[in-house]
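task queued by scheduler; priority normal; single chain, no ligands, no partner chains; default sampling; output format set to structure tokens
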Amino acid sequence: MPPSVYARTRALSVHLFTATGVIFAMLALLAAVESNWSWMFVWLLVALVVDGVDGPLARRYDVEVHAARFDGVLLDLIIDYLTYVFIPIYALYVSGLVPGWAGWGILIVVPFASALYFCDTQMKTGDASFEGFPGCWNMVALVVFVVEPNPWITLAVSIVLSVAMFLPLRFVHPVRTVQWRPVTLAVTGIWLALAIAAAWGEFGLPRPLALLFGAASLYLLLAGLVQQGMARMRGERGV
């Protein structure tokens, strides 16, 4: 196979790999319709892994050059909206964890705000962090399934995070943010392993693991804000 054909085939295969995310989204939706929440989160987590891997592959194999007919960023955003927002928020309401008016509040606020955020052309900072909360409602929903907080607390937190999507606040990208990357990757791996264990175990974790899961979630939520604060204290610009 000539090098140019090989490069195009390899780049196209990355798009095909990214597109598998919509298959996992469909499987997650079917599980949610059947109220099989464990399997729903398993499929959402598989989609999350695909989303974490396809970006580095796309950059390595120059998909924008060798497979430019397909917009990988657009494809990724379509799948992310399904797996990060639409299905998890549906699950929070239908599961009964956020019922009634609190549930209706989440059904209206989160998908609406997230639709705007996902088309924000300034959602990334220069160091590949996120400008504003990155709309990871799949992670938020899993924490709610594990912790089962009061529905109004869930709604309040969801409103705060929805507003935070449009504020100049920094949140780390688990793979691309360079600062603290080894720690972030390690914490992400711990979070993912505990998330799979929680989903597979009907959302019950032993107390030590539940505390570790909560700590990992807080790190991923707050690390970027801490980095931003430290940079401002050093007088760096653009933060």
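post-processing summary
- The chain has a mean pLDDT of 90.
- The first helix runs from residue 3 to 33.
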